[in-house]
Write a structure and sequence with these properties.
Blueprint lengths: L1 H19 L11 H14 L3 H14 L3 H14 L2 H14 L5 H15 L3 E7 L5 E4 L2 E2 L9 E3 L2 E8 L6 E7 L4 E6 L21 H34 L16 H33 L14 E7 L2 E7 L1
Helix pairs in contact: 1-6, 2-3, 3-4, 4-5, 5-6, 7-8
């Protein structure tokens, strides 16, 4: 009894397909696409589904109309290709501008029968014009918002759009199952523009140079200070008026002091200048802006210490 009911239902659907299909105009000759369509319809009415699928497919390639897709979808469902059949029947319902009521009813019934054999997935994406890949195969853009028909089992999905973080997920679905999957694409993190990104914390490069120069000059000041102190004691011991000798009695008296007096003055001057420069470099470095506080248009700073005879020269830009 059940088989008889199914047969009667299919016969009714087939009859509705035939009745709902208008005849071609009698005045103009049939186009190749129309000729293939008529051959497919004859094969379909005779139950020769493989021939019908071939004829309708070739006709659709030449002239892709929703009506041809509907007949192709019905033939695919009758032959057991429920996924492809459901997709073509869906296309008819979505794109046929003026469907007849009988044709619409027959397509809807055939699609409902196909859905019992497949998985129906509907992706609800928060961004328009997103690309969708199912099992690594691209989904036709216009079908992204339509129900996607799949075989039962596991499937992977990838949704992506330029400027947004892609979403990749998978699921396992049973026969006849319908799943509505919301997909949220979040904007990609903004990349820092050159010169405007976050800068590392700490002192700016010129401040570090200033500290280094201050340290170097400070070391020079300390070294020359020690040398000046040692020279001072030696010069003091050789000072003629110190009672070490008498110039009137000894012509060589004071020669040792004169030899030490020049280096002592040079060391003292070097110590004083290097100490002052070290203090200036230290103050300069401490007053430089930290990383991240610099204003645009700042100039670069460079310092160079050049040793000279009896002193040093500091060159730089501030």
């Amino acid at each position: 009894m059940k088989n008889l009911t199914v047969m009667l239902g299919r016969t009714l659907v087939a009859t509705m397909f035939v009745v709902a299909t208008p005849a071609w105009g009698q005045e103009a000759p049939l186009t190749p696409a129309q000729t293939l369509f008529e051959s497919g319809r004859e094969a379909s009415n005779a139950g020769r589904w493989p021939d019908a699928i071939r004829m309708f497919s070739e006709s659709y390639k030449l002239e892709p109309t929703p009506r041809t897709a509907a007949w192709l979808g019905r033939a695919q469902v009758e032959s057991g290709d429920y996924v492809a059949g459901a997709a073509n029947l869906e296309l008819y319902l979505r794109e046929e501008k003026e469907p007849s009521e009988k044709m619409k009813q027959s397509v809807t019934k055939t699609l409902a029968r196909a859905k019992e054999k497949v998985v129906t997935v509907e992706l609800v994406i928060n961004q328009p014009d997103a690309e969708v890949f199912v099992d690594k195969q691209p989904v036709e853009p216009k079908r992204v918002t339509w129900p996607i028909y799949l075989l039962p089992g596991g499937h992977s999905f990838e949704v992506k759009k330029a400027g947004f973080t892609p979403r990749v997920f998978s699921g396992n679905y049973a026969v006849g199952q319908s799943a509505r999957l919301p997909v949220t694409l979040d904007p990609e993190p903004k990349k820092a523009e050159p010169g405007h990104g976050d800068k590392p914390a700490g002192w700016a490069p010129e401040a570090k140079v200033g500290f280094a120069v201050a340290g170097g000059l400070g070391a020079v000041a300390v070294g020359t200070g020690i040398g000046a102190l040692a020279t001072y004691f030696a010069a003091r011991d050789a000072y003629p008026e110190g009672g070490k000798c008498n110039r009137q009695q000894d012509p060589a008296c004071g020669q040792d002091y004169e030899k030490l007096d020049g280096p002592l003055q040079g060391l003292t001057l070097t110590m004083t200048v290097s100490g002052a420069l070290a203090a200036g470099a230290l103050v300069y470095a401490a007053m430089r802006p930290r990383n991240g506080e610099r204003q645009s248009g700042s100039t670069n700073t460079g310092l160079m210490v050049v040793p000279t005879v009896g002193g040093m020269m500091v060159l730089g830009t501030f």
